[in-house]
Amino acid sequence: MQQYLNKFPPGYKFYPTDGELLRHYLNNKVLDMPLPWPKIKDVLLNYFMVCLLYLLLLRNLVTQQVSMITQG
Questions:
Q1: Amino acid 39: pLDDT
Q2: Does residue 35 contact residue 29 with C-beta atoms inside 8 Å?
Q3: Strand, helix or coil at 49?
Q4: Successive 10-residue mean pLDDT values, the chain, 72 residues
Q5: Degrees to nearest 5, angle at CA 12 with 10 and 16
Q6: In whole angstroms, what is the distance from residue 2 CA to residue 38 CA?
Q7: Alpha helix ranges (H) inside the chain
Q8: Which domain holds residue 49?
Q9: Measured distance CA(58)–CA(11) in Å, rounded
Q10: What domain of life is recorded for the organism (predicted)?
């Protein structure tokens, strides 16, 4: 499973269906069972200022571009 998850680049967006969310994530979360993917993190966005989130996004985008340039 870890090898499979490492194939996705940082910031990869996935769009699970409502059923997938309920079955694989929320059900386990409510029952305090292990979540299927340890790479999915809970983030409380209420603790962040919007401008800081934007700056973090820009920093990550620049880091990814520099990484792509240096690798290829």
A1: 61
A2: yes
A3: coil
A4: 71 80 83 73 71 81 77 67
A5: 145
A6: 9
A7: 2-6, 18-20, 27-30, 50-71
A8: 2-71
A9: 12
A10: Eukaryota
